[in-house]
Amino acid sequence: MAEYDPQPGRDEQPQPDLSAAQREADEVDLYAALTGVAGIVAGARGVIAVLGDVAKFAHQAIPGVDGAGVTLIDAGEPTPSVATWAVTAEFVEEIDKVQYLDVHEGPCITCMQSRRPTVSGSMGSDSRWPRLGGRLARMGVHSALAMPLLIGDQVVGAINTYAYRRDAFSEHAVELSSQFAGPAAVSVYNAQLLAGAQERTAQLQRALGNRAVIDQAIGIIRSRSGASAAEAFDRLTQISQSENVKLVVVAERLVEEAARRARARQSP
Q1: Which pLDDT tens digit goes with each residue over 79-120?
Q2: Which residues lie closer than 8 Å to 71 by C-beta, 6 or more apart?
Q3: What domains sit in the chain, N to C, each tagged with a CATH number?
């Protein structure tokens, strides 16, 4: 049985024995969800689309869920913070906004800090999140199960599931969610890596383009004044600083002006 953190001070409510047919049905749902996660290929799709797919499969894999979400954290910051998330239901979006942007507490944040599944069967009376629990209870949301997404020792995000009824998530649900979380973490992590690589590639392409324009501007200044490359670059820098605009903007302006004059000279 997977270890998890239950709601403090709340006795575990007896759960009805699951029939063999129900257990088999849950295993089928889990297998289908794991197959779906394994088939996720980020490719040209954005991170949000991948997170949305993982959230959808989590909803399928974990019994008792009324709405699910997947959160991705920005581990590159000095203090890891929530970067983005995707959900399967509007009420989960509302919960996550309150959790991440308003009260800064909740099952998702707790599970990422503890690196253990976090369960609550009565959010309104859960002492761990006094500011969030009451809001959820007023929304009619009483149960939560949050799973950290781990790659080795690194937390990359979390799966958050919610239910309207109390004590919706049994040990059986925690066990299934634990089996789902590992492959889900890999899909989320790969999407994050790909997005980072794509962004770095785009930055490099922009830098190379900027460098080309700056070199053209340096060449224009040298042809007009006979200055050295270093002197021409200094002139561009001085203009950039005096006008408080980026160096590449000054260079683009100079190149465009030179091109305009060239076209004017060629006109009959």
Answers
A1: 556 778 889 999 999 999 999 989 999 999 999 999 999 999
A2: 51, 82, 84, 85, 96, 100, 108, 157, 158, 159, 160
A3: 20-198 (3.30.450.40), 200-266 (1.10.10.10)
